[in-house]
Amino acid sequence: MLCSGHVCVALEAHFSSQQVTKRAAVVAQSCSFRNFPLKSSPHTYLKALFSFLSVALNLWITTMSFLDTLRQWDEAVACVDKAHLSQALEILVSIEEPNSKIYFNIGCLHLINQELDAAEKAFDRSIGKDEHLAVAFFQRGITFYKKKRYEESFADFQHAFKELRGNQLIDYKALGLRHKLHACEVLHNMALSEAHLGHWEKAREHLVSALNYKTESKLNLIDRALQSTLKQKLFQPAVVSSTALFRPNKHYVAELEKRDYLGKAKVVSSIIPQDEFSGFAPLQPQVEDGPIGPKAPEVLRAFEGEPHIVLFEFVPETSGELAVVPGNIVFVLQKGADNWASVVFNGRRGLVPHNYLERMEINLTSKPNQAADGGEKSACIVKVHYTFNLALYIDCGSPYATLAEMISKKLLLPADKITLSSTSPAAGLTVMDASTDMQGIWSSANCGRITLWCDIKEEPLKDNNPGVQMHVIALYSYESTNLEDLTFNQGDTILLLTKVNQDWFEGQCNGETGIFPAAFVEVPVDAK
């Protein structure tokens, strides 16, 4: 039986709107028959009964409408994962009462199809539903930018930056959108709008401000834009990924599915050894005689999914994700189009980034560490400390050239550009090369594992006069935000030490040593 209390609880669980909460409270209070006097006439009771049933029916219809919306929303997102964008758009547009997130998704799909007027209209409605949704302002700013309405584009990017409230980024993962809106990206696009309007000085000011909000992954984006503004050249805008859409709450979606509370039959006793199989093998025919031969030793008992080895450590941020470290073996059940993989690890299921994994080829018919020619050949797990950690299998006794080639291939770097060390920087680096006694390295393996440290060889600056030191002049002031950065003022002379990469130099100024952006200084022509 449906009562007012049940309807109120259901609505408050699914809607956060104050309007629904107040309406449910009024229904619960007004439709309580205990408030009626005992001597009320039958006409009064019937009137109250019909009033209660009418309001309860309306609330039930509202609840069912939410469930239909949730089901269509989930179906549309599944179509996007399968690259069926037109079908997804049709489903989303057919939803009777879309919320702010659904309007955002509609706008993104129109934006992909270059339907700019429809995208603008959808983002307008999304912002109308939630005026604090910064990413919606950002996407509408992109729409205005593509329509060459740069003043309106700048205003929307400025509004998005205001909604960040001084934070470095907003992570929308908890709201169902796998995207992080960075403040430096918003300032980057504000600078681009100013550049299109011919305000190059304001554009540079926004990009310098973006350096205060920079993250390591977005650093090159800001540096390249700064270099472009110095030459008064336009650059590309920062955009949201085309597959980044708001997804419905997975716990609510799970409630839509039917559940089998009885479960399935499980073999608890059998005379056939293979009936202990833990996957989905069918039952074996029962015979009176026992097995002919001895039972083969089991190498691996996880048969569901494809085996993968974990390359990098992953720390979960939600309850649906799994914590893994390099060297763990997980079994991939399904890989989504958003680069997340559903895996099994230690009997638990969860999500792990697919690019953190590497597929393993496992042969269960042969014994481990046994070569095809019958000879014993052991493999060693090599853990490499770099800017991130990685692990790989290498045959023990391999020469230095083979080891360096395999590691450089994983790092996507040339083998002659990396330096390997068998000791940590804290203990003093012991650099390895072709003359290193590799037998001693492999013999130091502990339980088939060794640890190495990897670094990139620093590229020295070109100097036509070896005995002369190179200096550069600071074009702008730079205030360090990290311990390794170098602080200097406009006009300071800086002694160049090394070229870290294309965008960063290391130098000395005012008795301090550190790294700084190459775009902030004027480099001599013969030093480039």
Q: What structural category characterises the helix and strand content?
A: alpha+beta
- Low-confidence regions: 1-36, 275-303, 364-376
Radius of gyration, in Å, reads 32 Å
Strands of the biggest beta sheet: in what spatial order?
6-5-4-3-7
Mean pLDDT: 76
How much helicity do the residues have? 25-40%
Distance between the termini: 80 Å
Mind summarizing the main beta sheet?
5 strands, antiparallel
Total strand segments: 17
Tally of contiguous helical segments: 14
User: Which band does the percent of strand residues land in?
Assistant: 15-25%
What is the overall silhouette? Answer: flat
GO cellular component, one term: cytoplasm
Keywords: Cytoplasm, Repeat, SH3 domain, TPR repeat
GO molecular function, one term: superoxide-generating NADPH oxidase activator activity
Domain SH3: 303-362, 467-526
What do you see in this structure?
It is found in: Cytoplasm. Residues 303-362, 467-526 form the SH3 domain. By secondary structure, the protein is an alpha+beta fold. Helices cover 36% and strands 16% of the residues. The protein has 14 helices and 17 strands. The chain has helices spanning 4-14, 18-30, 42-81, 85-93, 100-112, 116-129, 134-146, 150-163, 183-196, 200-211, 219-230, 250-256, 400-411, 438-443, and strands at residues 169-171, 180-182, 306-310, 329-335, 340-345, 348-353, 357-359, 379-385, 389-395, 418-421, 431-432, 449-456, 471-474, 493-499, 504-509, 512-517, 521-522. Helix 3 runs antiparallel to helix 4 (85-93), helix 7 (134-146) packs antiparallel against helix 8 (150-163) and helix 10 (200-211) packs antiparallel against helix 11. The protein is flat, with a radius of gyration of 32 Å. The model is unreliable at 1-36, 275-303 and 364-376 (pLDDT under 50).
